[in-house]
Amino acid sequence: MKGASVPAVVGMPSPLFLWRFKAILFLVWGLCCCKIGWDSVMRMSADLRDLFLYEVFLYYNPLFLVALMIWLWGVNLWVFAQSSVNYVKVFDLAQTHLSHREIWRVLLYAILLIVLLSPFDMFYLSSRFYFLRTMLRIILPLQAITFPDFFLADIFTSMSKVFSDLERSVCRMVNRQVATIAWFEADSICGSHSIAIPLVLVLPYLCRFFQCLRQYKDTKEKSCLLNALKYSTAFPVIFLSALKYHVFPDQWVSFYRPLWLISGVINSLYSFYWDIKRDWDLSILTRIFMFKSPSTWTSLLYGRNWVYYWVLGSNLILRCTWTYKLSAHLRHNYLTVFAITALEMLRRFQWVFFRVENEWNKMTAKQNFEMSSDMPSESDRLLESNSHTV
């Protein structure tokens, strides 16, 4: 008698294969859309094409950069989830927090204000409430500053140009200057002379500045004042640049532009030093020049020393180019400004790894110290044993 036939097992594609297949389909779709759009743009006249490209850049680059920052934050969370850094504890998140998987899914809804402010228990209500609560604490630092408060405020300083572009877009829509050349004129309502440009640019730095003062009030640590001084060095960079449209050209060239350059150098170097020495707590510069092996290098990278040389060089260069972006009189070089803003997102992306792990290391060291202080010393154990013997 023949044995019962065994049904053939149907092989199911692996999740990795499905993910790659969807990624390839998305890439092909994106390339087709780009090709169709490019052909349509190239059929326009030169003047109309320049106006169209600038309009597209004006209204869509802020949303793209916001989406880019959220996506990079998702990558940060994914790396932390794969390592020993407990970012949930660092940020004091609830167990139902938004993980790196969900943050990519909610990416499409990030540009919709109604989703962010929705009171209904949908679209990760706890995460939206956490974000809005932190935003309120940043704007009104009326209570003790926590790590998530100034961490998010630091990220906002990297997005100051994005906020300024959003304000410019709203201004042109409100004043009916969409698809017109009125805003090319410096003295128009939404032109380069507008005082709203430097005010919006400086707002994230101002919030961070007041956070540092609040921290000094609570802790009396002088490092808080030095940190506040770092953020205040961005003020002259922003406002001196805006003065170009309010002073005579010869005054700008002979007096204000040199001051702008000096303030930009001071801001870049001070910020670079603070990143390396304070935010990351890495004595890399001293160790490199003394040809010593760093003992405090991060465990995230597992001995990949070349990454530190890359971080040093790229952070210094991007800190210097960031000054370019904060300058209102250079806004018309929009492609260059867009590239620099995107690179600043990447600089902040790599900054997050070292900053969060540094905070995690501090929390771990404090916890270990408290545990060791609770343990009885050797002399206490000897006295206790002698008392039992007697």
From TrEMBL:
Organism, as annotated: Triticum aestivum
Subcellular location: Membrane
EXS domain segment(s): 188-387
Main location: membrane
Entry annotated with the keyword Membrane: yes
Alphabetical UniProt keywords: Membrane, Transmembrane, Transmembrane helix
Stated name of the protein: EXS domain-containing protein
Stretch list, region Disordered: 371-390
Pfam families the record matches: EXS (PF03124)
GO CC aspect terms: membrane
Superkingdom of origin: Eukaryota
Topology versus the membrane: Multi-pass membrane protein
